[in-house]
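Fig. S4 source data, part A: sequence.
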Amino acid sequence: MQIDQDEKEYPIEVEQILLYGTMLKNTQFIYRLSVYTGKHSKLMMNSEDAPYKMSKMEKVTNKTILALFVLQWFITILCAICSAIWQDQHLNMWYLFHKNPTLSVKYGFQSIITFFTLFHNMIPIRCVIFII
């Protein structure tokens, strides 16, 4: 680097370098030279947030919860279909209060929500917080 005042070259060494994020105080003036060292320098790589690390137990728990969730939906749909078949076959039961002999989409959604609510205890609440 050359400065115009005395036309003398000054080497840049480690003592003269201020790293990224450094604040300079109590100095009247400075000569600045920006040096880009790349995003793969040690300082820049350490400035990023560390990735979330999961233990083997958390991975197994997440897979188990996912399998239970899929099983819960499978059982819910199966029970809703069986309920619709049973309701269709037992239209003559006076205590069931059938207003419309044909099954509707509304009844299907109601039965799916009902069975999902009944089976929601398959996944304990303590296990749900592990999924991230």
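Fig. S4 source data, part B ends here. Residues 56-128 form one domain.
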